[in-house]
Amino acid sequence: TEHLNELEYLGYDYVEMPLAEMMRLDGPNFLELKRRVDRLTIGCEVCNNFFPKHMRLTGQEVRMDLVLSYAERALTRAKDLGATCVVFGSGSAKNVPKGTSLEKGYQQIVDLLNQIASLAANRDIIICIEPLRKQECNLINTFEEGGRLADELRHPNIKVLADYFHMMAEAEPMSHLSGPGGRYLAHVHFSSSERKFPGYQDEEAYHEFFNELNRIGYDGRISCEAYSGDFKAEAPVTLEFLKHMDARAKGGDSSV
After folding, report:
1. pLDDT of res. 256
2. DSSP H helical ranges for the chain
3. What's the DSSP call for residue 180?
4. Selection from 121, 24, 33 nearest residue 80 by Cα
5. What is the CA radius of gyration of the chain?
6. What is d(CA 125, CA 38) in angstroms, rounded to the nearest whole number?
7. What is the per-residue DSSP string for 46-75?
8. Closest CA to 167 of 188, 151, 186, 150
């Protein structure tokens, strides 16, 4: 939140904020955050980090009553901030523990998404499944797998996210973006393959990624989710970089 005003000043279109962290705020502090966001000309259109690390979503210790109660309160806070998309990555919470098969864990996630879909729909929020690299989670690791899950659920409020960093980590072909799962794509995360702010080094796969997004006609949000050693220097460069890559993929002016 310390960078909200800078992002507004630089000309970013929106901010993406961590929901689990905001759920730790008490009522008065959350209202103060909401007032701060409301004063901006850019809004919190997306929230990531849906579930906290300690909340079990798979395994033998799942308390679905507590999970659903948390999800309802979290989605309400996301709605209060103006978000229309909540990213469901939550690798630690989703990771299938020893003693539970991956098949059982997967079915638990299917059951969870089926139940929170209506909570999201009631608040006009899209839940975006975020595939995560195997180092962070042992379930739903590729965009292709996320697309299959969305296709299995077939709910208008359950979509999938594409993350360049995770696709590179899993050596997933960028062509999967224009595969069957592409019709469920509703949000994008971007960083370098080292999870740093892009723009200071050129990666060949950058162009493949944006070309595939253009191929399927994706014209939605792209969030930079990356680590920065110097935010004030890197944030404006990244904004220009993303505009440049988008324009180049669409055949527009590639100058920056």
Report:
1. 31
2. 4-10, 19-23, 27-38, 64-81, 91-94, 102-121, 143-153, 164-169, 204-215, 231-249
3. G
4. 33
5. 18
6. 18
7. EEE--S-TTS-SSSTT--HHHHHHHHHHHH
8. 188
For 23-77, what is each residue's pLDDT tens digit?
Answer: 999 999 999 999 999 999 999 999 999 999 999 999 999 999 999 999 999 999 9
pLDDT of residue 61: 96
Q: Are strands 43-48 and 85-88 parallel, antiparallel or unpaired?
A: parallel
Task: Output the six-digit token pair for 156.
Answer: 């208008």
What does the pLDDT look like over 114-125, one tens digit per residue? 999 999 999 999
Per DSSP, the residues of 156-202 read TTEEEEEEHHHHHHTT--GGGGGSGGGGGEEEEEE--TTSB-TTSS-
The answer, yes or no, to whether residue 146 has pLDDT greater than 60, is yes
Does residue 9 surpass a pLDDT of 50?
yes
Q: 72 phi and psi, to 5 degrees?
A: -65, -45
Instruction: Residue 125: name the closest of 40, 69, 34, 45 by CA.
Output: 45
* Exposed / middle / buried, residue 232 (Cβ in 10 Å: 0-12, 13-18, 19+): exposed
> Virtual CA dihedral for 164, 169, 175, 177, nearest 10 degrees?
-40
Beta bridge partners of 227: 196
| Section 7-24 average pLDDT | 96
143 backbone φψ class: left, alpha, beta (φ>0; ψ -120 to 50): alpha
Instruction: For residue 222, list its beta bridge partners.
Output: 188
Count of CB atoms situated within 10 Å of the CB of 109 = 20
Q: Which DSSP letter does residue 99 get?
A: T
> What backbone torsions phi and psi does residue 41 show, to the nearest 5 degrees?
-85, -15
pLDDT, one tens digit per residue, over 147-191 is 999 999 999 999 999 999 999 999 999 999 999 999 999 999 999
